[in-house]
Amino acid sequence: MDNAFLDALKRRRTQYSLGRNLPVPAETVTALIKEAIKHTPSSFNSQSSRAVILFGAQSQKLWDLTKEALRKVVPPENFGPTEKKIDGFAAGAGTVLFFEDQDVVKSLQEKFPLYAHNFPVWSEQAGGMAQLAVWSTLANAGIGASLQHYNPLIDEQVAQEWSIPASWTLRAQMPFGSNEAAFGEKTFMDDALRFRVHQ
């Protein structure tokens, strides 16, 4: 089956071995991320997804503060593997922070009260699609990434460090960089357990 979009989805894989040798300039990476999020669908065209893109020392700062936040909750005897994992994220070229703007959600709830209970769910769905769109777009450009969730543990520090608007809720972190290791084989469950087709 020849399909460029499916090919991009198939290239999207979790990469923990990241480096700083990006195959394209940082400006190109920024443009790719912006375009991916801009063209991600959202309910009522709400465009509730937000992103902060950190490169170099700024990305390192994020993972340093994440490490310190984890140090307060992970027992010292178990901290070694945790520190190694965080250092792996910091070894990349940058990180995308994904947020959902709650002011947008509240505005839609007020404007369309019949669907009020759905807008938070739809916002999360839009955010997930934005994350997939960015991840696949980066993979298509030869850039490795993974999706992490250290929120809400780091929410306050992130908001202070990068002057994040109060209405933006942190949802995920995506460290990215050069692929410094091959991908392992990906396994799939039987289609019969996942899909039903009626004609």
Automatic annotation (TrEMBL):
Keywords: Cytoplasm, Oxidoreductase
Organism: Bordetella flabilis
Phylogenetic placement of the source organism: Bacteria, Pseudomonadati, Pseudomonadota, Betaproteobacteria, Burkholderiales
Compartmental location: Cytoplasm
Record field: transmembrane: none
GO biological process: cellular response to oxidative stress
Signal peptide: none
A GO cellular-component term linked to this record: cytoplasm
Name of the molecule in the record: Nitroreductase
